[in-house]
Request: fold
Amino acid sequence: MTEAKEIRDQYVNELRNILPWLQDWWDGVQTELSPEIAWRRWPTGPAGHPRVLAVFRKYYLQIEASNNSVEETPPAQKQSEQWGTDDHGEDQLSERPLDWLIFDIAAIAPDLKDLVDGLCFIPVGIDDEEEVV
Reply:
């Protein structure tokens, strides 16, 4: 969890760094086109800007890589050695990127809530074998 928290903190900082520029860009788009046309062209608002999508994708993939490294760690005991022992299951070892990068942001960084609420799809390319493309 600590690694996911560190990744999220970097994500929040990067979004905060581009937020002023992004707000200026969005204000300019609405002024140039009109708010109605701007929202039709950019239905997710400023969240649909390629810079926001690139930042999200970068940190999403970092959390996934962290999850993959945890999953590759061999178990302490072979499954056959655990036969007949009480086991209530393991704690969740992998983190859900959407929790860390979208759903928890309102509590962690309220100033970014409106921006990340616009991320209504996962802008990460994955093929049929769930490999990143």
Summary: DSSP finds six helices and no strands in the chain. The CA atoms of residues 59 and 65 lie 10 Å apart. The mean pLDDT is 84.
